[in-house]
TrEMBL record:
The keyword DNA-binding does not apply. It comes from Crenothrix polyspora. The keyword Iron-sulfur applies. GO terms for molecular function: 2 iron, 2 sulfur cluster binding; metal ion binding. It comes from the Bacteria. This is Iron sulfur-containing domain, CDGSH-type. Gene3D superfamilies: CDGSH iron-sulfur domain, mitoNEET-type. GO terms for cellular component: cytoplasm. Residues 6-43 form the Iron-binding zinc finger CDGSH type domain. Keywords: 2Fe-2S, Iron, Iron-sulfur, Metal-binding. PANTHER family: CDGSH IRON SULFUR DOMAIN PROTEIN HOMOLOG (PTHR46491), CDGSH IRON-SULFUR DOMAIN-CONTAINING PROTEIN 3, MITOCHONDRIAL (PTHR46491:SF3).
């Protein structure tokens, strides 16, 4: 069972820290990867380094073409 949602999800990030965005939808810590892809998917996480300390609203459907950010692919409620 996936944990995808058709909305963006807030994540507090720190400048200079590397994060892994979940591209498979099976993570229990959406929108960040918890390594569930190793068991359930061929997909891998998308790494990114936060430029600023802030709250980002990342894609929660895992279908975006602009990971980790929402591209309104699934008509996200918060896009
Ligand atoms: S758990 Fe989904 S990419 Fe890692």
């Amino acid at each position: 069972m996936t944990c995808k949602t058709n909305s963006t999800l807030p994540v507090d990030v720190e400048a200079g820290v590397r994060y892994s965005w979940c591209s498979c939808g099976f993570s229990q810590t959406m929108p960040l990867c918890d390594h569930a892809h190793r068991q359930f998917s061929e997909k891998k996480s998308v790494k990114f380094i936060a430029e600023n300390t802030e709250t980002l609203h990342l894609c929660g459907c895992s279908e975006t073409a602009t990971p980790p950010y929402c591209d309104n692919h699934n008509q996200c409620k918060n896009a």
